[in-house]
C-alpha cells in the first residue's frame, strides 16, 4: 500500500509544478549501463534505453525541483565472449521510472544568460513493467518473484552547451531489494538462491530543454 501511495504522490507532482511561477520542460534520450549486486556477475555489461519527458519548477535563481517520466531498461549480463561458445546470461528489466530531483546550477554564462552546470540529487520510484531471464538458473523461473516496485537514490550532473542542449551523467542505486532470498524458499526451507539482489546503474543522457 505504501508503494502505491508513493506512486500516486509522484504522479500528482506535475500539477504542483505547472502551478509555479516558472517551469521548464525537457525531452530526454539516453543509455543505462547496469548491473545487479548479488547475481554473481561483475561489470556494467547490460545496456538499455532510458528516455522520456521531464518538467521542472524553478525555485530560485540557481535551484529547481524536477520530475521525469521515463522508460528505463536495466538488468545484468555476463560479458560477451569472442567466439560466443558460452551462452550469455541475461536479466532484462523494463521499468517506468519517475525520478524526483533537486537541482543546483553553477557556472553562469553572462553572454547567453544561462548556467552551464547543474548538479542533481534525489529519489526515483520505478514500477517494473516486465522482465525476462536467459540462461540464468534458477532465475528463469524466479523472475516472477522480482519486486514490482523500486525506490532508489540518484546523483548526477548535467553540462549545458547552450540554453537548450544538455549532456548528463548520473548514478542510481536501489534502496529496495530486487529479489529477497529470505522470502523465497525451496521445499526444504532453504533459500532458492544464495543471495538477495539489489540493482544499480549509470546513465548517460542527452536533454533538450524548452
Would you write up a description of this structure?
The protein is mostly beta strands and 210 residues long. It has one domain: Beta Barrel (Porin). Helices cover 10% and strands 56% of the residues. The chain has 2 helices and 8 strands; from the N terminus they run H-E-E-E-E-E-H-E-E-E. An 8-stranded antiparallel β-barrel has the order 1-2-3-4-5-6-7-8. Residues 3-8 have low confidence and may be disordered.
What's the helical proportion of residues? 10-25%
Q: Order the strands across the largest sheet as they lie in space.
A: 1-2-3-4-5-6-7-8
Please give the alpha-carbon distance between the first and last residues.
36 Å
Order of helices and strands: HEEEEEHEEE
Task: Give the overall form.
Answer: elongated
- The proportion of strand residues reads over 45%
E-strand count: 8
Radius of gyration, taken over Cα atoms and rounded to an integer in Å: 19 Å
Query: What structural class do helix, strand and pairing data support?
Result: mainly beta
CATH architecture assignment: Beta Barrel
Amino acid at each position: 500500500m505504501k508503494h502505491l501511495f508513493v506512486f500516486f504522490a509522484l504522479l500528482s507532482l506535475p500539477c504542483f509544478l505547472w502551478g509555479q511561477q516558472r517551469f521548464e520542460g525537457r525531452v530526454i534520450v539516453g543509455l543505462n549501463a547496469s548491473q545487479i549486486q548479488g547475481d554473481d556477475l561483475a561489470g556494467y555489461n547490460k545496456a538499455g534505453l532510458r528516455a522520456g519527458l521531464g518538467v521542472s519548477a524553478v525555485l530560485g535563481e540557481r535551484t529547481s525541483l524536477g520530475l521525469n517520466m521515463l522508460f528505463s531498461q536495466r538488468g545484468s549480463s555476463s560479458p560477451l565472449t569472442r567466439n560466443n561458445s558460452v551462452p550469455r546470461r541475461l536479466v532484462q528489466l523494463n521499468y517506468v521510472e519517475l525520478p524526483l530531483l533537486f537541482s543546483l546550477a553553477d557556472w553562469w554564462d553572462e553572454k547567453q544568460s544561462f548556467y552551464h552546470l547543474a548538479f542533481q540529487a534525489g529519489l526515483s520510484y520505478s514500477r517494473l513493467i516486465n522482465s525476462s531471464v536467459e540462461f540464468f538458473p534458477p532465475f528463469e523461473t524466479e523472475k516472477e518473484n522480482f519486486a514490482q516496485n523500486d525506490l532508489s537514490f540518484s546523483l548526477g550532473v548535467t553540462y549545458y552547451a547552450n540554453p537548450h542542449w544538455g549532456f548528463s551523467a548520473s548514478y542510481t542505486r536501489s534502496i529496495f531489494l530486487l529479489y529477497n532470498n529470505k522470502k523465497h524458499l525451496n521445499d526444504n526451507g532453504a533459500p532458492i538462491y544464495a543471495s538477495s539482489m539489489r540493482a544499480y546503474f549509470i546513465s548517460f543522457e542527452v536533454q533538450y530543454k524548452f
